[in-house]
Specification:
With about 180 residues, the chain is an alpha/beta fold. The protein contains five helices and five strands; from the N terminus they run βαβαβαβαβα. Strands 2-1-3-4-5 form a five-stranded parallel beta sheet, sandwiched between helices. The longest helix is centred in the N-terminal third of the chain and has 15 residues.
Length: about 180
């Protein structure tokens, strides 16, 4: 039986280089019998965390805010693997992805922690014009450790400034193989 994979795609471009990595990863994951649900965050109405500590993990809508995170929470709650996908913006994840990650905190509040542990794993897919992934990769590893998620790996693709630059590069195959390795 395959794994349930949730991809949080923080790219603002549906046809950009990060999305090409997501497509390759998804193809590989599905070829191994996994199910993939992708959330294209830029097309969603997601507000920043208010830090109110009013969330309750066991509720159908764990956060007090009413926005598109309500579509993401049940999928994350039930998934085996969470994939973070983003272009590199100022040596960090995109704002779209950071906002969604911050809002996942509602799954840790209240009656039970539904985010930390639970045998989950994670992966990171990133594309960038440059190659300065050290800081964001450090953040990713720290996040995985704190949430007790197994780090399945990362595909960090530098040298991709224009849309389509990543086409034909080895990182596309690496993303496919990373997805295919899940099972």
């Amino acid at each position: 039986m395959g794994k349930k994979i949730v991809i949080l795609n923080g790219s603002p471009r549906k046809s950009g280089n990060t999305s090409a990595l997501v497509k390759a990863f998804s193809s590989g994951a599905e070829s191994s019998g996994n199910s993939v649900t992708e959330f294209f965050l830029d097309g969603m109405d997601i507000h920043g965390c208010k830090g109110c500590l009013g969330g309750h993990s066991s509720r159908e809508r764990p956060c007090v805010q009413k926005d598109d995170m309500s579509k993401i929470y049940p999928q994350v709650r039930d998934c085996d693997v969470i994939v973070l996908a983003s272009p590199l913006y100022y040596w960090n994840l995109s704002g779209q992805l950071r906002t969604a990650i911050d809002r996942l905190f509602a799954l840790e509040e209240g009656e039970g922690n539904l985010l930390r542990g639970h045998g989950r794993a994670c992966a990171l897919l990133m594309a960038a014009e440059g190659h300065g992934f050290e800081a964001v990769f450090g953040y990713y590893k720290h996040l995985a450790k704190q949430l007790q998620w197994e780090n399945l790996g990362a595909v960090l693709a530098g040298g991709n400034g224009d849309i389509g630059d990543i086409s034909g590069k080895p990182e596309i195959q690496k993303a496919y193989e990373l997805g295919r390795s899940i099972g």
